[in-house]
């Protein structure tokens, strides 16, 4: 029997006036809140009476918080709660205009619900599944009226997340799609129309990335803390991938990936074995109190130290003294790195192939510092002192007395090898030699010298003064005190150092570029539009930029070069650059720098 939460009625707003939500877990309860606050009559259905009671308590608490924050009045709260009633039997959905199923990700469970609803709801009632992993087409085909079945994929937490994926099968009637799309807009959401494939757009791209992060951790390439910090600081993501897997649920992620792999047979979607191991051990993430991390209690988001937590105090080996730094190069990255070191108080030699180029690079730093003065971040006196620490030079001979030499020249292995040969000759014994490469083997630079133990990778991110991350890349030959030196330097320059081994892409690019490549494949296969994919990842994944916005900023030629390096290193067919990317680069459409990439840009 249905139990009203309140007796205050309110007139509905649209043709989809009464909406049943089947399954009152976190997602179902969130959807019910969104609907009720938007003026819909809501029937919350769950077989568990305890669950319906919990859902009502959550709704009361959530709406009370909204009042406290000034987002609802007490009258609006009372009216919203009045529009919600609960039941423990599907027959309560008999009068619904729309039913949204948010049951566990099991085809058998969802099929049973849809089969029962066929005998309960009116012929015109739309049936929506909230699945993000199972086939909407299969559920529709088993329904008595497949034309009214579609997917309506909200994102967690439903009250806060703007994205809703509207999923059509080949059987879905356009009128049904139009009705739920209009509803999503009225709910204040941004609907994206997609076809039926596991993961749809947002999760289809997100879960492949999460899977690769899990595999990277499983291979002991980098620590969980460093993987997560790298993606937060290097890509501006709100959460690292392993922390996000714990939030989503390791078992849920495994289910989604299994469904994706069953359809794509792409090895990038084959669940990393660690996901199975954690799931079967009951270590499913926050909800269990332990997953990749350990939490204060089941359901808590507070991470507590465990046996894998790094010890305080950093590396055991003492580093070498660094008072002066040489930066080789005259481009944006070189001048940015020189600015970083000068701000930290180091004496900096900025050397280029000519005095003129070095002076131009120092002038670029001067403009950057002047901008900081204009913004109130520096005083004019401090900016002048920083600039005085930078000595431009037209020859690498000026590096004779530096303690650390950092190259930031063209991303060309032969160019870098020649430079390291020169550094080997001009730099004093004991100087640390670092490369800023983002994709080339550090050990190849090391072997160009007579002191490979002194060579290490320091991958800064652009713009270097603003970006906090530095990937510290040890080769099998790098000495412990060289590693310790670079970690200490990162600390003094207020950068967050993450450790990783010498393989293509390091952490960030190895996880970022396969995701970008998969987004290109979606467009290439006409699955979704550029705009819909970008919106899906900004709104559903919390990315600061959609993949195509980012590709055009990075440069399609740069992106293609990195994709080729990853494919060559890992030999995985799924990493082969998308033909569409190759075609655009061949046509000279390189992104913002040429005025056209995936989109066209106004010429400056």
From TrEMBL:
<dbReference type="Pfam" id="PF00725">
    <property type="entry name" value="3HCDH"/>
</dbReference>
<dbReference type="InterPro" id="IPR008927">
    <property type="entry name" value="6-PGluconate_DH-like_C_sf"/>
</dbReference>
<feature type="domain" description="3-hydroxyacyl-CoA dehydrogenase NAD binding">
    <location>
        <begin position="18"/>
        <end position="196"/>
    </location>
</feature>
<protein>
    <submittedName>
        <fullName>3-hydroxybutyryl-CoA dehydrogenase</fullName>
    </submittedName>
</protein>
<dbReference type="InterPro" id="IPR006176">
    <property type="entry name" value="3-OHacyl-CoA_DH_NAD-bd"/>
</dbReference>
<dbReference type="InterPro" id="IPR006108">
    <property type="entry name" value="3HC_DH_C"/>
</dbReference>
<comment type="pathway">
    <text>Lipid metabolism; butanoate metabolism.</text>
</comment>
<feature type="domain" description="3-hydroxyacyl-CoA dehydrogenase C-terminal">
    <location>
        <begin position="199"/>
        <end position="295"/>
    </location>
</feature>
<dbReference type="InterPro" id="IPR036291">
    <property type="entry name" value="NAD(P)-bd_dom_sf"/>
</dbReference>
<keyword id="KW-0560">Oxidoreductase</keyword>
<feature type="domain" description="3-hydroxyacyl-CoA dehydrogenase NAD binding">
    <location>
        <begin position="325"/>
        <end position="502"/>
    </location>
</feature>
<dbReference type="InterPro" id="IPR013328">
    <property type="entry name" value="6PGD_dom2"/>
</dbReference>
<dbReference type="Pfam" id="PF02737">
    <property type="entry name" value="3HCDH_N"/>
</dbReference>
<comment type="similarity">
    <text>Belongs to the 3-hydroxyacyl-CoA dehydrogenase family.</text>
</comment>
<feature type="domain" description="3-hydroxyacyl-CoA dehydrogenase C-terminal">
    <location>
        <begin position="505"/>
        <end position="601"/>
    </location>
</feature>
């Amino acid at each position: 029997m249905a139990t009203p939460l309140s007796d205050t009625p309110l007139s509905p707003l649209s043709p989809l006036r009464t909406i049943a939500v089947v399954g009152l877990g976190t997602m179902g309860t969130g959807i019910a809140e969104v609907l009720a606050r938007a003026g819909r009559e809501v029937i919350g259905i769950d077989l568990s009476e305890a669950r319906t009671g919990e859902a009502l308590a959550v709704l009361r608490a959530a709406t009370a918080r909204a009042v406290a924050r000034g987002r609802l009045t007490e009258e609006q709260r009372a009216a919203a709660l009045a529009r919600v009633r609960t039941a423990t039997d599907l027959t309560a959905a008999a009068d619904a205009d729309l039913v949204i199923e948010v049951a566990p990700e099991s085809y058998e469970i969802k099929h049973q619900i849809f089969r029962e609803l066929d005998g309960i709801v009116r012929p015109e009632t739309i049936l929506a599944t909230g699945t993000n992993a199972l086939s909407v087409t299969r559920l529709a085909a088993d329904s008595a009226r497949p034309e009214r079945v579609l997917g309506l994929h909200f994102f967690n937490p439903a009250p806060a997340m703007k994205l809703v994926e509207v999923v059509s099968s080949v059987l879905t009637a356009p009128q049904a799609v139009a009705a739920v799309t209009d509803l999503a807009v009225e709910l204040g959401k941004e609907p994206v129309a997609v076809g039926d494939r596991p993961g749809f757009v947002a999760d289809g791209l997100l879960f492949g990335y999460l899977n690769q992060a899990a595999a990277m951790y499983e291979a002991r390439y980098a620590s969980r803390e460093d993987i997560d910090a790298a993606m937060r600081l290097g890509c501006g993501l709100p959460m690292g991938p392993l922390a996000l897997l714990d939030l989503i649920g390791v078992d849920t992620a495994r289910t989604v990936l299994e469904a994706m792999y069953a359809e794509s047979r792409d090895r990038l979607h084959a669940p990393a074995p660690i996901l199975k191991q954690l799931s079967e051990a009951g270590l499913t993430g926050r909800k269990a109190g332990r997953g990749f991390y350990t939490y204060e209690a089941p359901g808590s988001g507070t991470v507590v130290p465990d046996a894998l937590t790094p010890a305080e105090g950093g590396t055991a080996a003492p580093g070498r003294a660094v008072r002066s730094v040489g930066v080789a190069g005259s481009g944006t990255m070189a001048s940015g790195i020189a600015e970083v070191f000068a701000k930290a108080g180091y004496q900096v030699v900025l050397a280029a192939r000519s005095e003129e180029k070095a002076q131009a690079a120092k002038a670029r730093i001067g403009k950057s510092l002047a901008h900081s003065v204009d913004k109130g971040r520096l005083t004019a006196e401090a900016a002048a002192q920083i600039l005085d620490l930078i000595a431009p030079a037209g020859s690498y001979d000026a590096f004779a007395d530096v303690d650390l030499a950092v190259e930031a020249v063209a991303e060309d292995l032969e160019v870098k090898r020649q430079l390291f040969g020169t550094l080997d000759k001009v730099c004093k014994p004991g100087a640390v030699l670092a490369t800023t490469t983002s994709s080339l083997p550090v050990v190849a630079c090391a072997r160009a010298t007579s002191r490979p133990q002194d060579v290490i990778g320091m991958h800064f991110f652009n713009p270097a003064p603003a970006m906090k991350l530095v990937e510290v890349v040890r080769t099998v030959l790098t000495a412990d005190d060289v590693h310790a030196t670079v970690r200490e330097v990162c600390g003094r320059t207020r950068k967050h150092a993450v450790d990783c081994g010498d393989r293509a892409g390091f952490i960030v690019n190895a996880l970022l570029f396969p995701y970008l490549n998969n987004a290109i494949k979606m467009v290439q296969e006409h699955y979704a539009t550029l705009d819909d994919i970008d919106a899906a990842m900004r709104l559903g994944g919390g990315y600061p930029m959609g993949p195509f916005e980012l590709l055009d900023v990075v440069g399609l030629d740069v992106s293609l070069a990195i994709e080729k390096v990853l494919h060559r290193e890992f030999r995985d067919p799924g990493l082969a650059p998308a033909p569409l990317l190759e075609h655009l680069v061949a046509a000279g459409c390189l992104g913002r720098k040429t005025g056209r990439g995936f989109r066209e840009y106004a010429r400056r």
